[in-house]
Write a structure and sequence with these properties.
By secondary structure, the protein is an alpha+beta fold. It has helices at residues 38-41, 45-66, 79-109, 123-140; strands at 2-8, 15-18, 113-120. The longest helix is centred in the middle third of the chain and has 31 residues, at 79-109.
């Protein structure tokens, strides 16, 4: 079971966001390392643009260090090259660790309010459980 945050809006549909690791946010999972479309599906335009610019900057640094057909070789690398590779790995994995949190913050900025936190096996079930909780809550009050 996964934990989902369910957000409601007065005029828009209810949304559910999984908490924790976002597997699809890793650029290589989408097979498009230079176009992380996951951000676009989540409506994270500012982060998408910042991420693309960061990837382009890192790619230009790699080009300057290794050349057009060069590659990273741990046995012949200096400290700066190792630090750059570690920074690149952190930047490429950061969306997987923070992506769902960024999505939640984006929904809050769009006027959504956190309604419920539910345990469910998938997003659809989380929305159904939230709807049932809302009905039960409305009956009590």
């Amino acid at each position: 079971m996964k934990t989902f945050k369910v957000f409601s809006h007065p005029t828009k549909e209810v949304k559910a966001v999984k908490t924790g690791f976002a597997w699809l946010a890793i650029p290589f999972v989408t097979f498009l390392p230079f176009l992380p479309v996951w951000f676009l599906f989540r409506g994270l335009w500012k982060i998408f643009i910042a991420y693309i610019l960061t990837i382009l900057i890192l790619a230009s640094i790699d080009y300057e260090i290794y050349g057009e057909l060069g590659f990273f070789n741990f046995s012949n690398s200096n400290d700066l090259q190792i630090i750059i590779v570690i920074i690149e790995m952190v930047i490429l994995l950061l969306p997987a660790f923070k992506g769902n949190e960024w999505t939640s913050i984006n929904l809050l900025n769009k006027g959504y309010k956190l309604s419920f936190t539910v345990q469910a096996s998938n997003k659809k079930e989380a929305l159904e459980l939230a709807q049932n909780k809302k009905i039960d809550y409305d009956r009590i009050y």
